[in-house]
Protein: Fe2OG dioxygenase domain-containing protein
Organism: Lotus japonicus
Amino acid sequence: MGTNATSEVANFHYMLSERKAFDETKVGVKGLVDAGVKKIPTLFHRQPDKFEKASNLGNHVIPVIYLASIDKDPTLRQEIVHKLREASETWGFFQVVNHGIPLSVLEEIKNGVKRFFEQDSEVTKGFYTRDKVKSFTYNSNFDIYSSPALNWRDTFTCYMAPDAPKPEDLPVVCRDILLEYGKHVMNLATLLFELLSEALGLNPSHLKDMGCAEGLVALGHYYPACPEPQLTVGTTKHSDADFLTVLLQDHIGGLLVLHQNEWVNVTPESGALVVNVGDFLQIIANDRFKSVEHRVLANHVGPRISVACFFSTGHRSSSKLYGPIKELLSKDNPPKYRGITVADYSAYFEEKGMDGTTALTHYML
């Protein structure tokens, strides 16, 4: 083995041992901040994104869709379907307001996430695991052993559906609000999948009948204040491995969407929820709807709190294959993807890690 190869192997082992040591603390990024770190460890240092210099924040604004009175006025419903179609085809992202979830519930779920991460570390350590079978898990960086650089973020994951979690498996500090918020988001997604079905020219129940709203995974993200935000990111550029994501972000912001090769800032709006098309919706819509890449900046200010609800069964095994919807296909629009199970896609997504590339290309025909 040449000198270069030997040093590469040594570097790899050092990187793994460094990540393992961080993982074994079970206190995540918050633990580093609590310990008073002034310089972030090199395992968080990242390569600048190729679109960084092309960024021109503020030139575009992602579409905002008002859902009030949608069931009372058929003309209004058609207008909303049209706006949703346009947003899903060109942006892959939109914000919804007047969505029916009370402001008090939105505030309480953010507070619940904050309470979880800010309780005594001996309590949070009890939930720290990488065992995907559990209905509630907490850790830092799901792809800690595969990503090129770690993200400045800790996360808890809660499987809400198809199997509802047992209340006793959830942390006391956010148990009630997690269960309540899950029901509200499920109702909203049922409406959104109806509207998206109509936007594709299908029967309103088409996407729901396919199982798009069957699985719900809620992620509570905690982004601590970062002493050197220019060296890292809160979340690396990626698209979501699900059908649809409903995101609640706090007032700090930092979510950027890649639109026409420019990073566009998603300005936090009080009471608004950010919705985006996931990879699976792009697959079944045969590229008509776009699962768009996005990222989150690290920030001197913190903690930033966000709650991402993924409509997907994730790693829960199922033999159900998802491919382009046959009603959308024709001689001029042949299928662009092969059929794939959600569990296989999730496993590939995780193994690949957040390396800045999309998992979709792996499944193209």
